[in-house]
Design a protein that fits this description.
This protein is of the alpha+beta class. Strand 11 (394-399), helix 13 and strand 12 (431-439) form a beta-alpha-beta unit. Helix 1 crosses helix 3, helix 7 packs across helix 8 and helix 12 runs parallel beside helix 13 (410-426). InterPro entries: CRAL-TRIO_dom (IPR001251), CRAL-TRIO_dom_sf (IPR036865), CRAL/TRIO_N_dom (IPR011074), CRAL/TRIO_N_dom_sf (IPR036273), GOLD_dom (IPR009038), GOLD_dom_sf (IPR036598), PRELI/MSF1_dom (IPR006797), SEC14/CRAL-TRIO_domain (IPR051064).
Length: 717
């Protein structure tokens, strides 16, 4: 069974009196040159009241539907007949039109209702509204084709409706007809009624429109006093949407899109007793689901519930971001782009995401991002007023200068992903454009982690510039006026966005403190822990099939000092047998400890070193990546770091002896995470990983990089 398709129009206001509109409307019969498919119409029934106030005409209309010949052949018809019944009430100044199909009425049910009425606030204006439903029961297996054809024909007719009236109004004007007198009760009828028939006297009929107009005027005065003068009230009855308002504040919508908005809005008014989102916001959810009203309703309702739970409506007025955020969150609003969209600038490369997560936890960061989004909605509304056209999204400029492996710290990335998810779900279609500037070589790694969480619609709006490309053609100047390009991008405009910088460790809070803050960030972990002993390194093997992949790692040295190595071998190392592990069994509380490199293997013959060894001290966090050049097996190794003897005397130095005594039982501990990212996930931007010389590590305390293998590891102290 097919779905019933429904249509509901906005209110269209003609700034002409009802009688003139009727004179124009009647000219479209029996045929109309502007509707070629409207081949003929015959009057099959007619009724006029004695006083001429009521006039009902029933017509049989012959339509030549623009459908494939094959379909017409299968259906066995050339024309489709509709019955249209027009009821004109000149006294009340209304015309009601009912139409339904006569052809195929057992297979397809089409009902349409239109009305022309007097505008409630101005008796010299006329309102037009229409609604329709289409129900296809069956059509020789061509149900969906018929539905498409019907919808297409219908929407093109809706668009034409206004043109037709305006066309005939113009024709009337050319003939010198600019006003048509209102209906008045005929005098003869009055005498007759007072003498021969003891009927209800007709005279009060004159007073009816009179009182109606008086009330109408009073209403208008009330309206004018109550609404603020700055907002133009379209003055539509019963809070209905007006076509001109839609165009001015919401944009150019197709008839079906308008219909979806009106119906979803009506449904909200009937079902949601609380705060109903603004029309622009309802429209965003419809856009996010390609105007599928059921899907849009679902995500909108989830979002409304979420807003209530988290008191999001009050976030701008009631929540004060902690000082750490105000000092170290390098983002802020900065004028607007060339399209009038509010512009948000984020200096992500200068921002210590790890420090912010450690000092604040995920929850406070999320809350801050929500307050930014709420402010964005407010600015869009503001700009819509200022620029005189609908502006429903903002532009975000992200500067990645300074981005490095520290930004790939997993809990930070996880926090970022969760924030993106919440924003995607509750602020759909708010990002008009995302300009990513000065993308360094680690960017593809970050992009790969993040992009699966981003809606396809949103992803189309990303523009990514490496290095200084943004200064060239097709760059920043295409989107942002020269006068407001921020100083840190070589522009003249002072940008108030905080500089960011490293969050001092003294502001870090323990997992427990954050836990008490009701933040479940540190409970689930993707890290594994390993123990490293003197003479027993911990090794992890990564098999690479596709030569140009990227191995990424991220580890913390919890205890002791270690040396980190990465090797390549063509042969698969044999994992040790479980039982031979003895005391260092994987299940032992000491964490796992696995050796993979066979004792008989020789470096340079059986396996080779692909990175220079990296010495990592206790308490350091290390992130790095390696672009693989060959398939085969890569072995990541964490090895106990033994003290070097003093170079001059070959005797151990006192400091070293003392230090080595402090390392209890020659055991180190490491928490690590490693992942392989396939080159296909980079969407062609592998090259940017290889351009390894960039002003790369402003945030890092130390960077080691070996250009021959395009790898970099980075330590943050």
């Amino acid at each position: 069974a097919a779905m019933v398709q429904k249509y509901q129009s906005p209110v269209r206001v003609y700034k002409h009196p009802f009688e003139l509109i009727m004179a124009a409307y009647e000219r479209r019969f029996p045929t109309c040159p502007l509707i070629p498919m409207f081949v003929a119409s015959d009057i099959v029934n007619e009724y006029k009241s004695e006083d001429g106030a009521i006039h009902v005409i029933e017509r049989r209309c012959k339509l030549d539907i623009d459908a494939p010949r094959l379909l017409k052949k299968i259906a066995g018809v050339d024309y489709v007949y509709f019955v249209q019944k027009n009821s004109l009430n000149r006294r009340e100044r209304t015309l009601h039109i009912e139409a339904y199909n006569e052809t195929f009425s057992n297979r397809v049910i089409i009902n349409e209702h239109c009305s022309y009425t007097v505008h409630p606030d101005n008796e010299d204006w006329t309102c037009f509204e229409q609604s329709a439903s289409l129900d296809i029961k069956s059509f020789f297996g061509f149900e969906s084709t018929v539905e498409k054809i019907a919808m297409k024909q219908y929407t093109s007719n809706i668009k034409k409706g206004k043109e037709i009236i305006e066309y005939y109004l113009k024709q009337l004007e050319e003939e010198g007809i600019t006003s048509v007198p209102r209906w008045t009760p005929p005098v003869a009828c009055k005498l007759e009624s007072s003498t021969s028939h003891p009927r209800r006297p007709v005279s009060p009929a004159i007073t009816i429109p009179d009182t109606a107009t008086k009330e109408g005027l009073n209403n208008k005065e009330i309206l004018n006093t109550s609404s603020s003068p700055s907002e133009p009230t379209a003055g539509t009855p019963d809070d209905k949407l007006d076509a001109d308002y839609i165009k001015r504040y919401l944009g150019d919508l197709t008839p079906m899109q308008e219909s979806c908005l009106i119906r979803l809005r009506q449904w909200l008014q009937e079902t949601h007793k609380g705060k109903i989102p603004k029309d622009e916001h309802i429209l965003r959810f419809l856009r996010a689901r390609d105007f599928n009203i059921d899907k849009a309703r679902e995500i909108l309702c989830q979002s409304l519930t979420w807003r209530k739970q988290h008191q999001v409506d009050y976030i701008l007025d009631t929540w004060n971001p902690p000082q750490v955020l105000q000092d170290y969150y390098a983002g802020g609003w900065h004028h607007h782009d060339k399209d009038g969209r509010p512009l948000y600038v984020l200096r992500l490369g200068q921002m210590d995401t790890k420090g912010l997560v450690r000092a604040l936890g995920e929850e406070a960061l999320l809350r801050y991002v929500l307050s930014i989004n709420e402010e964005g909605l407010r600015r869009c509304e503001e700009n819509t007023k200022v620029f005189g056209r609908p502006i429903s999204s903002w532009t975000c400029l992200v500067d990645l200068e300074g981005l490095n492996m520290r930004h790939l710290w997993r809990p930070g990335v996880k926090a970022l992903l969760r924030i993106i998810e919440v924003v995607e779900a509750n602020y759909p279609e708010t990002l008009g454009r995302l300009l990513i500037l000065r993308a360094p070589r680690v960017f593809p790694v970050l992009w790969t982690l993040v992009s699966p969480f981003i809606d396809d619609n949103t992803r189309k709006k990303f523009l990514i510039y490496a290095g200084n490309d943004y200064q060239g053609p097709g760059g920043l100047l295409d989107y942002i006026d020269k006068e407001i390009i921020p100083d840190f991008l070589g522009g003249e405009c002072m940008c108030e966005v905080p500089e960011g910088g490293l969050v001092p460790k003294s502001l870090y809070r323990t997992a427990e403190e954050l836990e008490n803050d009701d933040i479940k960030l540190w409970t689930e972990t993707i890290y594994q822990s390993a123990s490293v002993f003197k003479g027993a390194p911990h090794e992890v093997v990564v098999q690479i099939v596709d030569a140009s992949s990227v191995i990424t790692w991220d580890f913390d040295v919890c205890k002791g000092d270690i040396v980190f190595n990465i090797f390549h071998s063509k042969r698969a190392p044999q994992p040790p047998k479980k039982d031979s592990l003895g005391a260092h069994s994987i299940t032992s509380p000491g964490g796992n400890n696995v050796q993979l490199i066979d004792k008989v293997w020789q470096l340079g013959r059986d396996y080779s070193m692909v990175e220079s060894p990296l010495i990592c001290k206790e308490g350091e966090s290390v992130q790095g990546s390696h672009v693989t050049r060959w398939p085969g097996f890569y072995i990541l190794q964490w090895k106990f770091h033994s003290m070097p003897a003093c170079a001059t005397t070959n005797l151990p130095r006192v400091d070293d002896v003392l230090a080595s005594l402090q390392v209890s039982s020659h055991k180190c501990k490491v928490m690590y995470y490693t992942e392989v990212i396939g080159s296909e996930d980079f969407r062609g931007s592998m090259t940017s990983l290889e351009s390894s010389h960039s002003g790369f590590s402003q945030l890092s305390a130390a960077t080691t990089s070996s250009s021959q293998s395009h790898s970099s590891s980075m330590i943050s102290r």
